Amino acid sequence: MALDMILTDEKGRQFIPIVYNQRHGGFGLSDEAKARYLEFHDNIQQDRIDRSDPVLVRVVRELGSKANSRGANLTIGFVEVGQLWRISEYDGMEEIEIFDPKQWQQARI
Q1: Beta-strand runs (E) in 1-109
Q2: Would you call 9 helix, strand, or coil by DSSP?
Q3: Is 31 helix (H, G, I), strand (E, B) or coil?
Q4: Claim: this prediction has a pTM higher than 0.85
Q5: Which helix (H) or strand (E) holds 68?
Q6: I need a surface site. Which of 8, 11, 27, 56 has the fewest CB within 10 A?
Q7: CB pairs under 8 A, 24+ apart, for 1-6?
Q8: Domain boundaries, the chain
Q9: Each residue's pLDDT tens digit in the chain (109 positions)?
């Protein structure tokens, strides 16, 4: 992760940027965003792209809404370093989900 991508809050906690889609329809990059991404990577598979990839974050920051494919609304969220996270999706609309052990139960006999 490029150091200029990491945010630090007033308590010294560090956060990394994550790209996700805030609109029904699904994650997708415009042709312009794909071309810019490919300036740094050999290929692109949108369904397997690392959402915390510094190149992806930089492309979305640089292009803003021009990075969106038709039906997408890409935005950048932040997750504290060390947190377990994943992208959850419903009908193409995504959110960053943070693992919270208080919300999980253990199967017991």
Answers
A1: 7-8, 14-21, 74-80, 85-90, 93-98
A2: coil
A3: helix
A4: yes
A5: none
A6: 11
A7: 1/52, 1/54, 2/54, 2/58, 5/54, 5/57, 5/58, 6/81
A8: 3-103
A9: 666 789 999 999 999 999 999 999 999 999 999 999 999 999 888 789 999 999 999 999 999 999 999 989 999 999 999 999 999 999 999 999 999 888 888 888 8
34-64 pLDDT, tens digit per residue, is: 999 999 999 888 789 999 999 999 999 999 9
E-strand spans in 9-84? 14-21, 74-80
Distance CA 21, CA 96 (A): 10
Backbone CA torsion sign across 94, 55, 1, 44: positive
Q: Angle 84-98-17 (CA atoms, 0-180°, nearest 5)?
A: 80
Q: Any idea which residue has 């139960």 for tokens? A: 105
